[in-house]
Amino acid sequence: MQSVYTEKEILGDALTAQKTATSEMNISANECVHEDVRQTMLHILSQEHDIQQDVFNMMHEKGYYPTPMAEQKKVDETKQQYCQCVK
User: Fold this and answer.
1) C-alpha neighbours within 13 Å on the C-beta side of residue 83
2) Cα–Cα distance, 56 to 10 (Å, whole number)
3) pLDDT by residue (tens digit) across 10-25?
4) Are the CB atoms for 32 and 38 separated by under 8 Å?
5) Contacts of 58 (CB under 8 A, 6+ apart)
6) Fewer CB atoms inside 10 Å of the end CB: C or N, the chain?
């Protein structure tokens, strides 16, 4: 018997695959000894993040990945918290 996957399942699987790919690529880039290889890995990582964002946006637009709106106060507090970490 052949299974038929829904669009939501396919996109969910794609998003999970992209999350895994970016995680693994990040580790690889962090552990590169050769700068040329590291730069190549970082370039690929950036492309993988773009793909992940595209899949997420598609799921979100179709209602497959609903996210509640954040209160502006909480957004501002979080931005301030992370800006302090960078200093």
Assistant:
1) 6
2) 12
3) 999 999 999 999 999 9
4) yes
5) 11
6) N
